[in-house]
Backbone:
């Protein structure tokens, strides 16, 4: 079950990387000085990616917990 732990850790890190990428995109959108409509459009593009990144992190953490539980 060690492979499940390491695979889960890799999936969690991938999700964390996507979360950091979403944060950077939002910061750059805020600093670009967009008007309300353009800012809202940018954020609406990022929200599904952010949700997917959170889901990926949760799945990875569940894989780690299951690997620890089964070993």
Residues:
């Amino acid at each position: 079950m060690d492979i499940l732990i390491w695979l889960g850790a890799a999936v969690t890190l991938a999700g964390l990387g996507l979360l950091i990428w979403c944060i950077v995109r939002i910061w750059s959108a805020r600093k670009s000085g967009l008007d309300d409509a353009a800012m809202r459009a940018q954020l609406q593009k990022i929200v599904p990616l952010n949700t997917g990144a959170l889901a990926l992190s949760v799945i990875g953490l569940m894989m780690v917990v299951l690997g620890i539980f089964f070993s």
